[in-house]
Amino acid sequence: MLNNKVQDAINAQINAEFWSAYLYLSMSLHFQAEGMPGVANWFKIQFQEEQAHATIFMNYVNQRGGRVELKAIEAVPTSWASPLEAFKSTLEHEKKVTALINDLYALAEAEKDYATRDRLNWFISEQVEEEDNCRTLIDKYSLIGNDGMEAAPTPRPPSSLNKPETAQQTHVSARAAAKQQHPPPPR
What we know:
Strand content: under 5%
Number of strands: 0
Oligomer: single chain
Structural class: mainly alpha
Number of helices: 5
Low-confidence stretches: 159-187
Largest sheet: none
Helix content: over 70%
Mean pLDDT: 85
Order of helices and strands: HHHHH
């Protein structure tokens, strides 16, 4: 059973995940309207990923016999001057989410709620990935500038929906990638 402090903190995190989803949906719709479907798609995938994060937290609260309390979602920004500005904004937002997850982890540790602490390990790794993805996109857009559009980001599937690869799958993936890079000579 979750204690009230941890339950309240997870409910606040659920709200933060939905706010993040709403932010990324807003970004997606903005860039769709601006005629940048690649950028819009990247943010749409982020929107879906944030919804999945909220769902993981909600399922966890229910699994632990707690009670999910959905709160109002505050308004989000609705326009950005460029994809570069949006990606910089995204990085700053993800840093705030990282801090929230770290605070939740510290609370779980202080409350000796080791099951919650264990569940949060995945989210901590996820935040490292999220911040890294933003930095990569910022670097790319900084190189090409805003006039170099539509070198849109390559969409990736929501990592929250991916299962960790087994060693054998990783080996097979590496072998397949090597074949693509070095196809056999024509006969």
